[in-house]
Amino acid sequence: MNEYVILVSETDEALGRMEKMEAHRKGALHRAFSVFLFNDRGETLLQQRAEGKYHSPLLWTNTCCSHPREGENVLAAAERRLHEELGIQPDAIVDLRPSFHFTYRAEFDNGLIEHELDHVLIGHFNGDCVLNPEEVSSVQWLPMATLLADVHGRPENYTAWFKIILNEYVKHLPNQ
């Protein structure tokens, strides 16, 4: 089954849709979301992408990233993907909400391009994950200070978009 992304203008106006891999080959601007879940200790949940992912396999990234489907709002899409990737039930997440959005572009060695208007959401979660091995290899909880130090010291272990998103995140929500 083909997956489609929603093409958007710089102001997030929907312009149509395109098959996901075609959009990533052409670098077409499309709508996306990135989720940061925190626990009661203030740590953020990271996932390590599965080995079979079409790009950036086995690299660490934020809790969940994906694309809403046509007719699906960003919050519903985030809840869907958190369940599909990490087995997290929507009712186990407290106060999942949009924080900010921004546009970025990242090019990969395999010729694919992420050009996304990314909606960043935050929420709180204290449960366990049930990993979908086709999507996620591993998870870990890290305090933000530890995460920032590790991304700085070992950037090769993290996805290109996560490093960009994290930079934006720190500007918008420094006291999370």
List the helices and strands and how they pair.
Layout: E1 4-8, E2 14-19, H1 20-26, E3 30-38, E4 43-49, E5 60-61, E6 64-66, H2 74-86, E7 94-107, E8 113-124, E9 136-143, H3 144-153, H4 160-172
Query: Helix share of residues?
Result: 10-25%
What is the CA-atom radius of gyration, in angstroms? 15 Å
Kindly report the spatial arrangement of strands forming the biggest sheet.
6-3-8-7
What is the number of E strands?
Answer: 9
CATH topology description: Nucleoside Triphosphate Pyrophosphohydrolase
Total of helices = 4
Shape: globular
CATH architecture: Alpha-Beta Complex
| Name of the CATH homologous superfamily | Nucleoside Triphosphate Pyrophosphohydrolase
Structural class: alpha+beta
What is the string of SSEs from the N terminus onward? EEHEEEEHEEEHH
Arithmetic mean pLDDT: 94
Identify low-pLDDT runs.
none
Strand content: 35-45%
As for the number of domains, it is 1
The first-to-last residue Cα distance is 38 Å
Major sheet summary line: 4 strands, mixed
CATH first level: which class?
A: Alpha Beta
Q: Keyphrases for this structure?
A:
Nucleoside Triphosphate Pyrophosphohydrolase; about 180 residues; 4 helices; three-stranded antiparallel beta sheet; alpha+beta
Entry summary:
This protein has 176 residues and is α+β, with helices and mostly antiparallel strands.
